[in-house]
Amino acid sequence: MTAIGQNIKVCRERAGISQEELALKIRVGTRTIQRYESGEQTPKSQTILKISTALDVPASELMGDIYYAAPPELDERPSSL
Q: By Cβ atoms counted within 10 A, which residue in 38, 55, 65, 74 is the most buried?
């Protein structure tokens, strides 16, 4: 899964929107959204802008590093040696 695909999925779920609803909002097929989220296909710049508008997030959040937080175990400090 690509960072953009993961970010689209996380932002879509956070917005409470299904893949079908997002597809309707940006006028693509549901399978296209599935391809974006799985990393099979990368959306073009104009599509990223449409997705960001539909999800009410900046495009930079979709294109940046993976948007979700790291698992808690990665935040723990290592014990002293």
A: 55
Handedness of CA 41, 44, 45, 48 (dihedral sign): negative
Give pTM, 2 decimals. 0.77
Print pLDDT tens along the chain (81 aa): 678 999 999 999 999 999 999 999 999 999 999 999 999 999 999 999 999 999 999 999 898 865 444 444 544 555 555
Return d(Cα 67, Cα 55) in angstroms, integer: 14
SS (H, E, C) 20-81: HHHHHHHCCCHHHHHHHHHCCCCCCHHHHHHHHHHHCCCHHHHHCCCCCCCCHHHHCCCCCC
